[in-house]
Amino acid sequence: MEKTDAIAALAALAQESRLDVFRLLVQAGAEGMPAGRIGERLGLPSATLSFHLNQLRQAGLVTFRREGRSLIYAAAYDAMNDLLAFLTENCCRGEAAGCGVIGVAGGACEASTTVTVEQGSVRR
To answer: How far apart are CA 46 and CA 61, in angstroms?
Structure first.
């Protein structure tokens, strides 16, 4: 991941509602979630949600697909993994395990992996 891509991703996640949206999509797994359900779950009006989803999409953190009249959004796990790798690539002189960095199995987040987030864990 390029430094500018990391900055864009971190900037997108530095807003509370966008971070909530992204974490919800990580929980939803690869199948994603319709925009309407995201808004309902987080109590965000359509226009506000659309703005935040667009910001996350421009940062490369979410993808979407159309199913009928619905837009289904999903976390871009490759981008998430790239960001995590960028942030930890020089940790402890390349010995991330030595400084307590919790990695994702095999360096990648997959549909059956548990990813440690803050104090809890998110199962997909």
So the answer is: 19
User: Are the C-beta atoms of 27 and 19 separated by less than 8 Å?
Assistant: no
User: In this predicted model, what pLDDT tens digit does every residue of 68-95 receive, in sequence order?
Assistant: 999 999 999 999 999 998 888 877 776 6
Nearest to 109 by CA among 83, 90, 71: 83
d(CA 66, CA 48): 20
- What the block records as the tokens of 79 is 């981008």
Place of tokens 């991941």: 1
Three-class SS of residue 42?
helix
Cβ atoms within 10 Å, residue 14: 9
pTM: 0.77
Considering the chain, tell me which residue range(s) the CATH 1.10.10.10 domain(s) occupy: 3-76
CATH number of 3-76: 1.10.10.10
Contact yes or no for 84/92 (Cβ under 8 A): no
Tell me the H-state helices in 14-109.
Answer: 16-28, 35-42, 46-58, 77-88
